[in-house]
Amino acid sequence: MNHSKRKKPLSLTALIVAISMANSSISFATPASNDKRVNLNGSITNVDLTGDKHAILNWTSFDLALDESVIFNQQGSDSVAVNNISGSASQIFGSIQANGHVFLVNNNGFTFGQNAVIDTQGFLATTFSLGLNDDNVLLTDPNSGTGTGKITLGNLDIANDTQYIAFYSENIDVTG
Question: Quick check: 22 pLDDT over 70?
Fold first, then answer.
């Protein structure tokens, strides 16, 4: 019997936990390398993914103060941007915007502050490692990343045209 460990696709029913819920000095989102797709302009970071239907970005931190925004310019509404964050738990108080789907992955967790804005086609924040295979199928590897970080949710501001918001973690605390 072969007991080799392999990546398994996520079950959407297990993954999608739709949540409808109707200042600090935080360092801004920082890409892990000199990624030419990421452009910082004052308090706005533009991520140009129009050449990639599905993209994986690596960040050393992904924190947004109240007046800061990250805007993902994607190829279309069915595009997916997987954002792997290697730093400490992310503090999201600002705005995340996209014309496609945005997945944030941080094994150390997230805090979504009071009135953080999510304006995307779909959104996922998880403490478990995710990736895309060659066929652009979302995969999780339970052996990579402990997923022990906590997700704390304040009272989020979610755009009306957002199809889903999902949070995937062993520890979720709703405060708002």
Answer: no
| Contact in structure between 72 and 47 (CB atoms under 8 Å) | yes
From 24, 21, 28, select the one nearest 47 (Cα to Cα): 28
3 state DSSP class of 52: coil
Q: Are 113 and 86 in contact (CB under 8 A)?
A: no
pTM of the model: 0.78
pLDDT, tens only, 121-158: 999 999 987 766 655 556 555 555 566 789 999 888 89
Tokens matching residue 107: 């094994």
User: What's the sign of the alpha-carbon dihedral 83, 156, 123, 79?
Assistant: negative
Tell me how long the chain is: 176
E-assigned strand segments in the chain: 8-9, 30-31, 38-41, 44-49, 54-61, 69-74, 80-85, 90-92, 95-98, 101-105, 109-112, 117-119, 122-126, 130-132, 138-140, 150-153, 157-158, 164-168, 171-174
Cβ pair 73, 46 in contact under 8 A: yes
